[in-house]
Amino acid sequence: MAELKNDRFLRALLREPVDVTPVWMMRQAGRYLPEYRETRAQAGDFLSLCKNRELACEVTLQPLERFELDAAILFSDILTIPDAMGLGLYFETGEGPRFRKIIRTEADVAALPVPDAASDLDYVMAAVKEIRGALAGRVPLIGFSGSPWTLATYMVEGGSSKDFRHIKQMMYATPEVMHALLDKLAQSVTGYLNEQIRAGAQAVQIFDTWGGVLSGPMYREFSLKYMAQICSGLIREHEGRRVPVILFTKNGGQWLEAIADAGADALGLDWTTDIGDARRRVGDRVALQGNMDPSVLYAPPARIRAEVETILAGFGEGNGHVFNLGHGIHQFADPEHARVFVDAVHELSARYHSHKA
């Protein structure tokens, strides 16, 4: 593999000195880019795009052609694992993901296989290898997965949900069934991320999109416990350097101390958590990633720069900050405003780093 020319993202995740704060955006390859929409139309549909290694590589690289980002993230979907378990993933226009088979009973859970990531999800690994080759050491590649709890919500609800009625019923009424499902998913995610690392991912992120819908005790028992299990089973050294792990629980700011004990190198923050407060609470243990409200990108450039400066000042001087949005970039964001954001992070952050990397 080519030598890494820009490693500030990996260094920041390990709280090592950098010259400027690194930045990337969740969903940076997506619908806000006209070139992405063209490639998706060429693929025919979203899943076909995910499963075509050349096109998945193309859309992964598209934002890097526009912006001076410090990392690329694999173009895929968090629901590849349930799909590989035989649930029949499909997408309804305007409705989001759906499954042809829904998990509701102990027998349903018992019948689920733990996928073999190398064979059952070979198209993902093919995309990782293709992207690593095409990046040629330009920036690191991030692999990712959904958390067991988040994957389970889609599998039990059958798709997106507003009230999480079925999965919370399972959790409270038959917790042993819920734990059996989550354990299978934790095994699956561990194998999936390790296979991504073997294929070339240089850092991995676990997206716990729906952990924040739980109460504190339920979060620890049904979400965080399984993310900690995954962290303990991941490959942490590959190709001669550490492979950092990022945990991101949306709406999880109240549990940062517990999340920091789960074994990851960095925690993702959404915009509802003050980054200075987060650093005071856990910044001596983990790096922090985040956390600008994606809606700021609707504002004029001067307002975007001001918000970047506010967050940089909130974190303060020193190491351990990866700048990001607090969630995925919105599809209606102006790409030129995304450029203002990325450039502002690099320009305004240099004075917060006394050591040149």
TrEMBL record:
Q: Does the keyword Cytoplasm apply?
A: yes
Q: Which reaction does it catalyse?
A: uroporphyrinogen III + 4 H(+) = coproporphyrinogen III + 4 CO2
Q: Which EC numbers does the record give?
A: 4.1.1.37
Main localisation, per the record?
Answer: cytoplasm
The UniProt similarity line reads:
Belongs to the uroporphyrinogen decarboxylase family.
Binding partners and assembly: Homodimer.
State the protein's name: Uroporphyrinogen decarboxylase
State the compartments where it is located: Cytoplasm
Q: What does this protein do?
A: Catalyzes the decarboxylation of four acetate groups of uroporphyrinogen-III to yield coproporphyrinogen-III.
Which species is this UniProt entry from? Marinobacterium nitratireducens
> Which biological processes are named by the entry's GO terms?
protoporphyrinogen IX biosynthetic process from glutamate
Residues binding substrate, per UniProt? 27-31, 77, 154, 209, 327
**Residue span(s) of domain Uroporphyrinogen decarboxylase (URO-D):** 22-31, 142-158
Does ATP-binding show up as a keyword for this record?
Answer: no
Known pathway: Porphyrin-containing compound metabolism; protoporphyrin-IX biosynthesis; coproporphyrinogen-III from 5-aminolevulinate: step 4/4
Q: Tell me which residues are marked as the site Transition state stabilizer.
A: 77
Gene Ontology CC:
cytosol
Query: Cross-referenced PROSITE patterns, in alphabetical order?
Result: UROD_1, UROD_2
Could you list this entry's UniProt keywords, alphabetically sorted: Cytoplasm, Decarboxylase, Lyase, Porphyrin biosynthesis
Which terms does the record give in the GO molecular function aspect? uroporphyrinogen decarboxylase activity
So which domain of life are we looking at? Bacteria
